[in-house]
Structure formats: structure tokens, C-alpha cells
Design brief:
Strands 1-2 form a two-stranded antiparallel sheet. The termini are far apart. It has helices spanning about 10-25, 35-50, 50-55, 60-85, 105-135, 145-155, 165-185, 205, 210-215, 220-240, 245-270, 280-290, 295-305, 315-325, 350-385, 390-400, 410-415, 420-435, 440-450; strands at about 340, 345. It contains 19 helices and 2 strands. Helix content is about 65%, strand content about 0%. Helix 2 crosses helix 12 (about 280-290), helix 7 (about 165-185) runs parallel beside helix 10 and helix 10 (about 220-240) runs antiparallel to helix 16 (about 390-400). The protein is an all-alpha fold.
Length: about 450
Amino acid sequence: MSEMENSFHLLLFVMAAISISAFVLTNYDILHPFCIVALLMTFSVFLAVLGMSRWNLYMSIDASMVIIGCVLSFGFGSIWSDWTIRGGLNLQKRIYGPEIGYKIKSWKVICAVLLMIGMACFQYKEVYEASIVYGNTSGIFDVFNMIKTVRHAIEMNKLYYSRWYQYRFIFATGIAYCSIYIFFINVFSSQYAGVLKNAKILLPVLFDFPFFILSGGRGGVLELFIFTLIVGAIIYQRVNGFSLSAKKRTILIFLGCGCVSFIIFLLMGIVTGKVVPGRSDPIRILIHYGGLSLPALSKFLDQIHLENSLIGSHTLVGIYNNLNSLGADLPKVKAFLPFVDFGGINTNVYSIAGRYILDYGFVGMVLLMSILGIFYTAFYDIVRFKMKGMIGIAFYGLVIFPIFFFTNDDFFLSTVVNTAILYKFISFFCVYEFFTLDISNVFKCCLLYTSPS
């Protein structure tokens, strides 16, 4: 295929222009959802361009128009929401940051850690027993072989963990999320300011990593990292009045955290057996995971029959399954997309555009992306400008991660529009109440209520 047929360079130019426009329209706010989506999609195109000669990558003009339409649709919804909500707020009266923090007792942190250790033991037991069923003979202490065995069974759709496995994972992550949120509130408060003074609050976060390792995946770690970055950055900017200097520091923090997240991604890949040291250089791995979804989309649009009579059969799997469990006679659907081959690569990752077009067509994709732009920007503006309390920032952090993965797949309809997100909110709220509730005052109230007058 000639260079004129390949639209990668044209796509990179257009996406760069969209990213610059998004940056200006959002008042240089890299935390803005439109900025995040545009910049990450541009970076994905850039990575694909770097890998063009290595894998002979190709992008049709039709696929490029789909990506441009996808990002612009999100942007239109985002900017409309931004202008509508911010136009209705009195920005001069907003409360910028936390004036007081939380006094967290050490025994509460210890209780949280002990609970996580106990749940991790049950998690380990279930994973080990499953690995034995699927051929693990290396013993209980060979963690790497155990994870490798169960991961293969999961990828082949042979192994499904129990509901309690999922509950333990969600609750443990809820403890970690709450610890991170309280840490940032205290660090930026006038009463408990100081990183070292609040370091003990982060102790439960360390005990969340065994859950990530046992899961055999890296998505959970990236979600935790994104939550930390977004929550910390929004609180920081609120404290500093969303000044230009604060935004500049946030950009530097984002760049640094991007490098750190890639290192964590590689390390977790080594631990879970997905990355073998010495076989692949870091740049090749970065291009593979960050840039190949776009040429895959081009191949996908050329090969896959897009007529689909079942609306949402690849994005609303949880809803289909729940309705079937309640007695509805609906077809069984699966989230897995068909694979395509190109340049010796076999993949079924086509960015968010591939899954949405397959399930809803181009018009449906445009509408959905516009709705997502409205939703995320409205949520973002409300928690940073309108809500007096800070807890809304944590709730925003719990649902923000899908936009960081738009370059790879849809995680909004599959995880946010799902009962699992409700469990995340409940677990976070329960842990938050446990950490912040003054039990001595509760006892005093009980004594006063029960004592004779």
C-alpha cells in the first residue's frame, strides 16, 4: 500500500489540531475530560506512526474518519456541558479546598490492614484451588506458575471465580481508594497538613497489590493509579484556586505519572507473566499496547460484517445476563470481539469506536460519545466548582478511568453501567464512615440516651 493510501499522518495532524483546540477551549486544563481523551488518542496515533515501518501498519481514510468523529463527538458534548454548567455557577463563591481534615486513629488503619490480609488469604486459597483443577502441580508457594495457569483458563473462558472472590476484590480496593482520598484531604488541609504525618493512612494501599497480582491482570493497578492521580490533582487545584501556575504543575505531574504508570505496567506484566524480560524492548511494548488498536480498527472495519440485530450485544453483556437470570428469554451474548490478523499480529482490541460501531452503528457511536462527553464534563464541573464538600471528587475518581482507555476499548458500558460500580460506591462509603466516624461520641450518645433522666 502506498503512502498516499495510508492516512496515519493525516490522522496525526488532525488529532494534534483537535488536542490543541481542546487545550485552549478548556482554559489549559489537562484534567478536563475532553483534554484527556484528545491527548491520549493523539498519543495513540503517534505510537502507531512510530510502528508503521516495523509492522507495516495501515490506516484507511474511513477508519481515520471514524476516530476523528469519535473524538469530536465527545468534544462537542463536553464543551456544550462545560459552557452550560459553568455559565450557571457563581464561580466567585466556590469553596476551593479542605480547611480541616480527618483525625484517623491508628487502630482503625490496623483493622483495615488485618481485614485485607484476611481477605487476601481467602483470595489466594481460591486461586490456588482453581490452578490445581487446571493443571498446576508446582505447589502452593509457586505464585508465578499458579497465576499463569489460571490466567490461561480465564482467557479460554473456562474459569470463572466465585461471587465472593469479586466481592473481596471490590471491598479491598474500596479500602485502598478511601485511604488515598483521606490522605490527600489531610495533606492539603490546614489542620493535618504534611505528607509524612499522614503516611500511615496509605498503609492499606500496599496490601491491595496482592489482590491485583492474584487477578492476573493489570487493569486494577492502572485504575488505582488513575484514581490517585485525578483525585489528588483536583484537590490540589481546588486548594490553589485553579490558578494557571497550578495547572502548569499539574501538567508536569501528569507527564511524570505517565512515565511511572508505564514502569508499573511493565513490572506488573513481569509479575503476572505477560512480559518476559529480554524478549521485548520497552518502546515495542508501548507501541504494541498503545498504538496497535487503530490499525486493528481499520482492518476490523474492512473484514467484519457490521449488521447487528442485537443492540448492545458486545457492550451490555451484564444487562443481558441479569435479564436472563430474571427469566427473560434473550440470546446469550459475550463481550469478546472477533479477532483480526495483520502484520503477524492477532488482536481483538479496536479502541472504543470498534465496539460502539459494531453494536450501534456510526450514528449510535456519535450519540453515545456525545452523551459520554456531557456526563463526564458535567460530573467534573460539579465536583470542582459546585459541591462544597470534597467527597464528590472521590466518587468522580471511581468512574473516571474509562476515558483513559478509550484508545483501547469501552469500559463505560461494561463496568460503569453495571452493578459492580454500585458495590464500589457502597464499599467506599462504608470504609469512609469507619475511618471518619468518632466511635467514642457514638458511645456517649448511646449512654446519654439509655441513662435514666
